[in-house]
Design brief:
Layout (H helix, E strand, L loop, with lengths): L2 E6 L2 E7 H10 L4 E5 L3 H11 L5 E5 L2 H9 L6 E5 L7 H9 L7 E6 L6 H8 L3 E4 L4 H11 L1
Parallel strand pairs: 3-4, 3-5, 5-6, 6-7
Antiparallel strand pairs: 1-2
Helix pairs in contact: 3-4
C-alpha cells in the first residue's frame, strides 16, 4: 500500500492511503460538498485531503453565504458546517436550512466538542452527524463514505 505524509502549514496531517483515496475517484465522481467555515485553514486541510478524489469542494466563510447558495437552488450532496462562526453559528444556520423548502441535504457539524452527551444535542438540531476538529483524514473519509 502506498502511503504519503501530508504536511500543511508545517503541521503533519498523517499518512494518507492512496488506495483508500482512489476508491473515492470512481464511487463519488462529481459529488459536491459545501464546506461552511470561517476558518480558511479548515478549507485548506479538507481541500488537501480530498485533492486526489473526484469530489468537488465548494467553500464559503459565512453562514449567510451558505444559505444564499441553498436558497438559489445550488445542489450539494453533503454539507460540512462549522459550529462556531459569527454572526450566525452552525446551529442557527442549520435551523434556517430546515426552513428552506425541499432542503434534504445531509449536514455534518464540525465541532471541537467531544463530550458524549453531545451526540443527542446535534441530532435534535437535525445534523446527520458530526466531525471533530482538528479534522482527521480517516474520520472525514468515513463521513463521506457513510453519507455519499
Amino acid at each position: 500500500m502506498n502511503k504519503n505524509i501530508v504536511i500543511l502549514d508545517g503541521k503533519s496531517l498523517g499518512d494518507i492511503s492512496y488506495e483508500k483515496l482512489n476508491k473515492y475517484e470512481n464511487t463519488y465522481d462529481k459529488k459536491r460538498i459545501l464546506l461552511v467555515d470561517d476558518n480558511i485553514s479548515t478549507n485548506k486541510i479538507i481541500s488537501k485531503l480530498l485533492k486526489d478524489t473526484n469530489i468537488e469542494l465548494d467553500y464559503v466563510g459565512l453562514g449567510k453565504e451558505a444559505l444564499d447558495k441553498i436558497r438559489s437552488k445550488e445542489k450539494y450532496d453533503l454539507i460540512l458546517l462549522d459550529e462556531v462562526m459569527d454572526p450566525l453559528d452552525g446551529k442557527t444556520v442549520m435551523k434556517k436550512f430546515k426552513d428552506i423548502r425541499d432542503f434534504n441535504t445531509k449536514v455534518i457539524l464540525l465541532t471541537r466538542n467531544n463530550e458524549y452527551e453531545y451526540n443527542e444535542e446535534y441530532l435534535k438540531y437535525g445534523f446527520a452527524g458530526y466531525l471533530l476538529k482538528p479534522i482527521n483524514k480517516d474520520k472525514l473519509l468515513e463521513i463521506i463514505d457513510k453519507y455519499l
